[in-house]
# Entry
Amino acid sequence: MYLQIENLKKFYGQDENKVEVLRGINCGIEKSEICVMLGPSGSGKSTLLNLIGGIETIDEGDIVVGDVDLGKLSNKDLTLYRRNTLGFVFQFYHLVPNLTVKENIESGAYLSKKPISVDELLKTLGLEEHQNKYPNQLSGGMRQRVALIRTLAIKPKILLLDEAFSALDYQTRLMVTEDIYKILKNEGITALM
Ligand code: ADP
Ligand code: MG
# Structure
């Protein structure tokens, strides 16, 4: 398994306010596998993604990515893990308002040694003719796609998507999902959404 999760626990709060969100999860994802996580609101999906993404700390158990045990990393190594291994797309896109679509995307891609072609991604995800617009000139669905391209362009080893398609209408979602699956397969990216 490329991503291995063992007896993972996460709590919030203390004593009578304690919420046990993850109560000992075990699962694994193979390299290049695309894994979709379903569950009602509040069931802990974002919490799990945040733990794998290294933005929340593990209370108990292990998350191992490749040969890296996340719970054992120093803060510095955790930052490097987030930069070199991970792509994380959130529900609320976090685009820079005074950069154009293309500039927003390039602001991520420059971090990568082997980025995926930004022009290609813009074309595949139907944003080519919008590349010089600013985020406030786009619909929510388009903004989500820009955020997605920005992260894909880095060519992460693991891609984490937290409701990253929620602003897309049904038809667009089907199209985008299919296009993204193709890109993930081509590039051998492991994905959890
Ligand atoms: P999902 O993404 O499946 O909707 P979450 O992982 O966001 O679920 O939340 C799971 C539970 O953890 C919820 O009950 C939520 O209220 C609680 N929770 C999430 N983050 C925090 C936090 N920072 N502090 C306290 N409780 C939290
Ligand atoms: Mg959530």
